[in-house]
C-alpha cells in the first residue's frame, strides 16, 4: 500500500469517527419536527397529538436506514448536510397526508372553512352572518 493510499484510508477512518455536535443534532431534530408540524398542523392540534409519534417513528426509521445508524445520535459530522437534505426531501407516507388540517376561514381565521365563497373557504358562522 502506498503512502498516499494509507493517508487516504486513515483520513476516511478519522472522518467516520467524528460524531455530529449537539447543535447539529438539534438542527436535524428541528428539521424533522418542522416537517411533522407542516404535515399535521400545530402541536396543540388533534392530528398532531394523535399521529405525531407515528410520523416521527416513520421518519427516523427511514433516516436511520438511509445512513445505516442505530440511532440518529450516531450521525457523523460529515453526514449532517446530507441528513438535512434527506429530511427536506422525505416523502411523507400517504396515510399522513389526509390528516392535514382544514384551512381556516378566510374572514375570521378561527374556524375551519367549510363553505366555498369565490376562491376561498369561509366557516358556517361567517356564512350565516351574510345571509
Supply database-style keywords:
131 residues
What does this structure look like?
The chain is mainly alpha-helical and 131 residues long. Helix content is 56%, strand content 5%. The chain contains six helices and two strands, in the order αααααββα. It has helices spanning 3-15, 22-40, 46-67, 80-89, 94-97, 124-129, and strands at residues 115-117, 120-122. A two-stranded antiparallel ribbon has the order 1-2. The mean pLDDT is 85.
Question: What's the topology here?
Answer:
Layout: H1 3-15, H2 22-40, H3 46-67, H4 80-89, H5 94-97, E1 115-117, E2 120-122, H6 124-129
Brief overview:
The protein is mostly helical and 131 residues long. The protein has six helices and two strands.
Name the beta content range: under 5%
Mean pLDDT: 85
Lateral strand order in the biggest sheet = 1-2
What spatial form do the alpha-carbon principal axes imply?
A: rod-shaped
Number of helices: 6
**Oligomeric state of the chains in view:** single chain
Let me know the largest β-sheet: 2 strands, antiparallel
How many beta-strand runs?
Answer: 2
Helix fraction, binned, reads 55-70%
End-to-end distance = 85 Å
Summarize the helix and strand pattern as letters.
HHHHHEEH
Low-confidence regions: none
Amino acid at each position: 500500500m502506498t503512502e498516499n493510499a494509507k493517508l487516504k484510508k486513515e483520513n476516511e477512518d478519522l472522518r467516520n469517527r467524528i460524531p455530529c455536535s449537539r447543535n447539529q443534532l438539534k438542527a436535524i431534530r428541528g428539521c424533522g419536527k418542522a416537517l411533522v408540524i407542516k404535515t399535521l398542523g400545530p402541536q396543540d392540534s388533534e392530528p398532531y397529538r394523535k399521529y405525531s409519534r407515528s410520523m416521527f417513528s416513520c421518519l427516523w426509521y427511514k433516516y436511520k436506514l438511509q445512513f445505516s445508524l442505530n440511532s440518529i445520535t450516531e450521525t457523523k459530522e460529515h453526514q449532517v448536510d446530507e441528513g438535512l437534505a434527506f429530511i427536506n426531501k422525505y416523502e411523507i407516507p400517504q396515510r399522513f397526508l389526509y390528516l392535514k388540517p382544514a384551512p381556516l376561514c378566510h374572514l375570521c381565521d378561527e374556524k375551519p372553512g367549510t363553505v366555498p365563497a369565490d376562491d376561498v373557504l369561509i366557516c358556517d358562522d361567517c356564512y350565516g352572518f351574510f345571509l
